[in-house]
Structures are given as structure tokens and as C-alpha cells.
Amino acid sequence: xxxxxxxxxxxxxxxxxxxxxxxxxxxxxxxxxxxxxxxxxxxxxxxxxxxxxxxxxxxxxxxxxxxxxxxxxxxxxxxxxxxxxxxxxxxxxxxxxxxxxxxxxxxxxxxxxxxxxxxxxxxxxxxxxxxxxxxxxxxxxxxxxxxxxxxxxxxxxxxxxxxxxxxxxxxxxxxxxxxxxxxxxxxxxxxxxxxxxxxxxxxxxxxxxxxxxxxxxxxxxxxxxxxxxxxxxxxxxxxxxxxxxxxxxxxxxxxxxxxxxxxxxxxxxxxxxxxxxxxxxxxxxxxxxxxxxxxxxxxxxxxxxxxxxxxxxxxxxxxxxxxxxxxxxxxxxxxxxxxxxxxxxxxxxxxxxxxxxxxxxxxxxxxxxxxxxxxxxxxxxxxxxxxxxxxxxxxxxxxxxxxxxxxxxxxxxxxxxxxxxxxxxxxxxxxxxxxxxxxxxxxxxxxxxxxxxxxxxxxxxxxxxxxxxxxxxxxxxxxxxxxxxx
Length: 486
Hints:
The chain is an alpha/beta fold. The protein folds into 2 domains: 43-342, tm_1862 like domain (pyruvate-formate lyase- activating enzyme), CATH 3.80.30.20; 395-479, Arc Repressor Mutant, subunit A. 36% of the residues lie in helices and 20% in strands. The protein contains 18 helices and 21 strands. It has helices spanning 24-30, 53-59, 93-111, 139-152, 176-183, 197-203, 209-222, 240-253, 284-300, 317-323, 368-378, 395-410, 415-422, 426-429, 431-436, 438-442, 463-468, 476-479; strands at 47-48, 67-73, 75-76, 88-89, 123-131, 154-155, 162-167, 187-193, 226-233, 257-262, 304-307, 310-312, 328-330, 333-335, 341-345, 350-354, 359-364, 387-393, 412-414, 446-449, 452-455. The strands form 5 sheets. Strands 2, 5, 6, 7, 8, 9, 10, 11, 12 and 15 form a 10-stranded mixed sheet that branches. A hairpin with a 4-residue loop joins strand 16 (350-354) and strand 17. The longest helix is centred in the N-terminal third of the chain and has 19 residues, at 93-111. It is globular and about 60 Å long. It starts with 23 loop residues before the first helix and ends in a 7-residue tail after the last helix. Residues 12-17 have low confidence and may be disordered.
């Protein structure tokens, strides 16, 4: 029977057969560079923002739409050599206090422009602190930020909202987790990457498995709803055997979610990676083996493969949302809060705002000094706003975004649903794309018929490649800016 929601999964409960045996030859055949689609169009389509546009976008935002707030904390106390982000390495405690002042100033700038119903504060359903190391902020500074936010927004109760923070377990004070939980944070994400000591030394991120286990134990005792652990495969000195040991030890710790990322070695673009010797990196064949072993081990342990490097226990909200056809994807990755406008704060942060006719994607300056100078100038000139780049999406973009995101979240696109939402005949509209997918259908990665396109279990690891077919912006110039799937 056709479910009410055509994207509700027919996979049912998680089983070891959720993904088929790892097919190395098929991965090799389709292993091309492509975006991770945290937005469509992707960030490569940003253009300079016209004066006053951000002000108009925020003023015209749908007042009833709930908000997701993102705060970017760019500071770290240690340089991790695998890093591909714009982070600032410093041990100066004063940096966090200074930066917090700028965050609060930016919150005030944007909050004054948001229209609300009946003069009430805008409703927030989701909040996330990323970085960098968000816990670079001292406990008292985190309290200061949180208490100020309560005066500007109306937060859902913590058992209804999603309030998360990324954590470097090496940088926690003895009371930080309790402070976060008391404030209302209900989800944490720990950067672990690998538990093998030789790998940790090679990437300059050394910690013990016992430290990670102790953080997870304390977090559970404090009542955090969900715990995520980040791992990376393809790091220097990693082997399939050592990574398998890490995966099995992490499974014993039983995190609710796992993110297992592919390390892309791009030292010409990321200065930190120049500390890594290319000769120490595993071969492409070894990386493929690592990926296959990781997928098989996690799936056999009962984790549901969500997509694009992410796994979750079957009772986790992400896994449930995927099975119910309610999963979404945005700049925070996979999310259950797809109805929210995203407001970003801090250097390099990204916002995504919809109004009646359009959706806008905006980005703040990626240079800290330039960002701070903009916020300083805005105190004396209300016409100045933080965003320096923008993408205005067209209805055609929204159509292709809908197709791409449903393929990545639910492994399916329903033609009847698309026709009703966008007033087109999807088969005719996408006739060229359907033709391009012919080879994938022959390889049994997908199944196409008059009802739609379904990514088959054999093709789930290559979902990005299926989605890329519908990306009108993905020319050769852009492809060189992305990492490969594996």
C-alpha cells in the first residue's frame, strides 16, 4: 500500500541486511567529486550582497516560521593537522570574551528586524554551537550567552527542542557538561576521529579511549538525549585493522549517532594539512577497505545508515524521522527541523531564510577581523549588516533542491508528489536527467519507473552521485572544488 507520505521508508526495523555486501568495484566506477549538498545551490554560487538586502530579508521573513540558531565559535587551543576549516589557534582566554561581545551585538542587530506575532519573541526549535571548539567559551560565558538569548527568543522546552553543541573532550572543565545540561542543551557531539595512538600523534589530537568513555558516561548520567561521535577514515598510519579496533571500541561505548568522514588530503588548500606526510596516508584501496569494514561492522551492530557518512541507532530521532519520511538536510547536516529558518551568528556563519516568494542563503565574512569590523560599523550605521554574500534561489532551484534532498534523505523521489508541488510533469521536465541515470539503473543502483526514482540498497553509498545528476550548477570548474565520495 502507498503510505500517506510517499517518502516514508519501507525498510522497516533495522537489520543487518539494510545495506548489501560492500561492492568495491561499483564504488570505484562511480567515485567522482561532488558536493555534500548542505544546500542547493551550494556555497560556490554565493555573490556579493547588495546594500540593505539582508535587512529586507529579515524584515520580510514569515513571522510564524520557527527558528534554528547557529553560532560559530572559531577558536581552538590545539591545531589538528587534518583540519579543513577556518579555525584560529589561541590559548588567550580573553579571545572568548571579546568574541562573545560581538556575537551578542550581532544577535541584537538581527533580532530588532524580526517581525513577530502579537509582539512575542520569535520561537526557536533548534540551536547549535559549532566551530572551532565551542567550549572554548568559559562556562560563565556560555551561561551569559544562553541567558541573553532567553531575553530575545522563545525556546521550546528542552524535551521538545533540539539544542546541541560540538565538544572537544580534551577541553572540558570539570563542570562544563553539567552547566550545559542545566542550561537546556540536550545533545552533544564529540570529536574523536581515531583511538589509535600512532594516528592521534600523526594528526596532533591525542586522548585516551578512557577519556571518551568517561565523557559519555557523565553525559548519560546528566540526561543528554543524544550523543554523537565523529570519526575519520583515511588518516596517516591508519590501517583497516587499527580502524576496525577503533570502531569496535566505539560500538562498546554505544553512542546514539556516528559520523564517519572521509579524510581528503588537500595541503595546497589547507595549511594545517601540510604537517601530514603523504607517504603516511593509507592507499586508496586501503581506504575503500576501511569504509567497507566500517559500514558492515556498524550495520551488524544495529546502526541505521542515514546517508553521507552518518549512522544512528534505530530509536534515535534521525533514524525515526528517516523511516517516517520526515528527514531534512541543511547547513547543520541531517536534521528533523526542516520547517525552521536558519539564523547564523559569528564569523563565516550561514543563514537560510524564506519569505513568500524566495529563499535566501547568506554568509558572514570568513575573516575574523573583517567580521568584527563590520559589527563595529553596524553600531553606528543601522544600514550595515553582517552578511557579505548571498544566494537568491529561484523556483527552479527550489524544485531541484526538493529532488536532491529527498534522494539524499529518503532514497526516493515521487513524481506525483513533485508534479503536485511544482505544477510540472516530472518525467518530461527531467527527461535528460532520467537518461543520464540509465547506467545506474543497469548496475542496479537505482530503480526508475512511472512512479519515481528509488535508490536501491546497493546504491545508497552513492546517493550523492544520483543527486549530482539533478544539479544544474555542477560544471567541471565546480567539480574540482569538491572531494570524492570515497
